[in-house]
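Please think about what follows:
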Amino acid sequence: MPQQGIPRDERDDAGGLHARVLAELGPAIASGAHPPGTVLRIDELESRYGVSRTVVREAVRVLEAMHLVESRRRVGITVRRTEEWNVFDPAVIRWRLAGADRSRQLRSLTMLRTAVEPVAAGLAADAATPEQCRELTVLAADMAAAGRAADLDAYLVHDVAFHRVVLSASGNEMFARLGDVVAEVLTGRTEHHVMFTAPDPAAVTLHVRVAEAVRARDARAAEDLMREICVGALRELDILAP
C-alpha cells in the first residue's frame, strides 16, 4: 500500500538512498571492514552516508533480516558473528564474492553445488515436465551458440536459466529455492573473471548431455553428467582462484 501523505518523488528518493546505504554498508560488513563485534551507531551512519535516521534504520532492518547485525537499545548496531549470517541470502553471497575472501567463498558454494545439483538432475529425469525438458534442450543449445561466439554475457544468462530449471524440475522445493544461490555463484564467477575467457566446450557438451539424459528419463546419466559439470567447476577454481 502506498505511503499516505508522502509525495511519490520523496518516497522514490528515500528508496534510492536506502539502496545506496545497503550497497555500501552491506559489502563493508561482509568483507570484514566492520568485523564481528563492531558497534555501529545510527548518528555516525547518518553522518557518514549523508542520509536521514529513517533511511539508516530501514537499511539496518534489512541487514538484521540477513542476520548480519543486531540492534540493541543503549548499545547500538552490533555486527554479528559470521556463523550467524544468513549465508544463503543472494545479497550476502554477492557481497562476500566482491571481497577479499572470494576464492574461499566460491569454493564453498561450488562444493554445495556438487552435493546438490547432481541429485537434483537425477530427480529431474524422473519428475521434469515435457515443457521443462524442452526448456533444458533449448537452453543447452543457446549455451552452445553463445560459447561458439565467445559471448560470456549471453552464456551466463542461459547457464543460470539452465541450472534454475534443473533445480526446479527436481520436484524438491528445497532444491528449487537454491536457484538464486547458484545464480549468484555463476554470476560472481563471470563478473570477477574467475573463469576462462571463453566457455569450456567440454562443459557446454556436458550441459547438452544433461538435457538429453533428463529428456530420456535416464536418472543415473543425468546425475553423473551434472556431477562432472560441478567437479569441472571446482577444477577451474583450482587453476584460477587457488
Confidence is low (pLDDT under 50) at residues 1-12. The two ends are 49 Å apart (CA to CA). The chain has eleven helices and three strands. Residues 15 and 55 are 8 Å apart (CA to CA).
